[in-house]
Amino acid sequence: MIYKFYHVTDVHYFSKKNFACDYRTMPQPSTQICITASEEAFLKALEIIEKDEETDTVIITGDLTNHGDAPSHEEMRTLLREFTERGGRPYVVTDIHDYPYFETYTVDENGKNVPAEHLEREEVVPTYYPFGRDKGFDSFDDDTTYIAEILPGLYYIALGYDEITIDGTAYPCFSDELMNWVKGHSEKIKEKGGILILSTHRPVVAPSPAYQIMGKGHTFAYGEKSLKQFADMGIQLFFSGHSHIQCMKEIVSEKGNKIYSIQTSALSGFPPKMRKITIDTEKGTTDIRTIDIDLPELNLGMSFTEYARKGFLGIIESIPYNMEHDVEAFANTEGGISLPKELILKHPKTVMYLGKKVNGITYAKLAKFSKKYHNLKESDYAEVKDKKFVDLAMEIVANLYRGNAAYSPDTVEYKLMMGSVKKIEKLLSLLHIDITKALSGYTLSEFIEPLLYNSGLDDDNLTLSTDFR
Ligand SMILES: [Fe+2]
Ligand SMILES: [Fe+2]
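That is the input. Now the predicted structure with fe (ii) ion docked in place:
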């Protein structure tokens, strides 16, 4: 059998009704999500699916709207209804961005955000049942988990989750009851000769050490253990969103059973992506293909990926320049790390000096700094010696979300960065400063290396070996 379907996540749909100004002429908002184009991105995704003659089926794993306001929900449901009427087969769930969890706002005449009304969770969840849970044949004793046969013989469970507090931080987790409910279904499906796949909104395992630290409480507690339990039930594919990070991971249980965690980036975030999945039971493979969303019809003057990057990382990217040339603007970003604005404005000369120093770091200077920690000869980096460290640093931040990163261990960038990291680690140890605690047990090298290159599975396109027989 061959099964084909799409995975779309974190649509963050933001109704155009929320703009009192002309969203086409307002400056690009500095947000993680392109709120001015999330509608177009979703329409594009639906169009891609509809044009595909091989499948009409799509799983959409939560954060359907940007913050749960009524107009966005209404339009999202209309789009799903119309998609369904045209033959589309969506299987959706809602998650935190669909409820009043974050600040709800509209944009006024001057392009400023103003607080707005939101819907309560109970008002939202059931309104999406026609596009998911109602198409299933069983549901768990919560309000989101359901199981449906999304293609003949292909069963899909959209999992909800509980919460557990560890050391004062709340983490999502799967209850024993839910695990048993999944196990019961997995056994029945196996008897019938079917295949079971799973999803939940949040990442069950962290895509990288950086996300584990920055997104504390967003990744599941005991996630790896849960995935191993699912693997031992014979389940091999697990889909998630929420982190807005493109990531593929393989987890192998102690019994030798493997499961793949497939995390897809936000449809209207950076990078804007969706995936097409093809399971071939004869060949024992699952092919994963990534589709970059592009919106040439919006005349953005750049690809939608670049535009999304500008909206999301623009502020961070402007920090080194502002430090040197515009201290006031730098103060308004609180230094990018919540430094008190007054402190920055009180010491403009120091800030400008530091900015100049940081901006002045070239590859040649990095090479000199980390001389004993790389084996590069001057001729190895002569061509790139004037390249700026700040540009490399911004690429590294972008790599956190892209997954795949271009700086393999044989590149100058890898050698200079890892050499410098090793030198910093040495200096810290001489000063008896231990930062592993601040990095959740990771060393600085373990934190930085995955952002330079991906030593694991390709995060975008690959063929997995999945033997469902
Ligand atoms: Fe999201
Ligand atoms: Fe989310």
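The longest strand covers residues 273-280.
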